[in-house]
# Entry
Amino acid sequence: MANVLWLQGGACSGNTMSFLNAEEPTVVDLVTDFGVNILWHPSIGLEIGHQVTQVLEDVISGKVACDIFVFEGSIIQGPGGTGTMNYFCERPMMDWVKEISAVAGFVVAIGDCATWGGIPAVAPNPSESTGMQFLKKEKGGILGAGFVSKGGLPVINIPGCPAHPDWITQILVAISTGRIGDIKIDEYHRPSTFFTDFVQTGCTNVVNFANKIDGAFGKRGNGCLFYEVGCRGPMTRASCNRILWNRQSSKTRANHPCLGCTEPGFPHHDLQKGSVFKTLKYLGFLPQDVPAGNSKLGYYLRAGFEKTMHMAETAVGVVKSHSESSI
# Structure
């Protein structure tokens, strides 16, 4: 049996809602089939008031083992590093986080706010929000760059806004069944099994991407959203088009631009005016951000050639049934 304690800081509860919608396995499967015991969760825990404080104190004292500590939401350090903007059980939440992380077998950060600071950490960041072990791309966070849990791993990051439900439950299963050692994590502490492929992998607009056909928000099959509507699928590592949401679809399959929410730079460009649902460009036509693995000059030259070729082929009636992506 693996004891799981789940706490929440500066968050919208979106990752909890995602978690409760998991299908492979479901939350019920976690309990009945994989021996997960949820010590407490802010939405489904039975304890209230001082009972919650007692659960936390029992974990810190070692009276009750905490095999997996899950945290959702940003760590609020304001004002002035006191953490008093986020009180929980008569103490700053950040103090609970530090003490519980020190005794937990494994620590798992769920969602962008817990992993990188997320939207609350966008400048000027009045709440002084940070992630568990990162602030954007910089290691540190509330636990420090050198933190390692009792299980021998740094904070396991499962980013997303929200994180896919099955990413969450499958990692909890891996830990509870003793198989977490088989999971590789990348430089941002993300499980590689979910964060190696790009969102563009499996995207139904990939042919339009290769042919440089511009798309429009919300119109299926109309073109690629990378060029005009700010889609970050070509530079975002996530399995959204491999492990579909609700086993049905994804943002890009519904012709909604990928927001790049599994990358530590999210929200990208710090939400500056004109950067949301819009591709920022140089000289009015060159994308500022290019697909991962490409130099900007190389991509601009290749993209220009491919677009010219597609226009020429269209003019003479050549129709492609498939094409390679420009990644």
User: Anything to note?
Assistant: The mean pLDDT is 90. The radius of gyration is 22 Å. The helical segments are 14-20, 27-32, 50-61, 93-103, 112-115, 165-176, 206-210, 296-315.
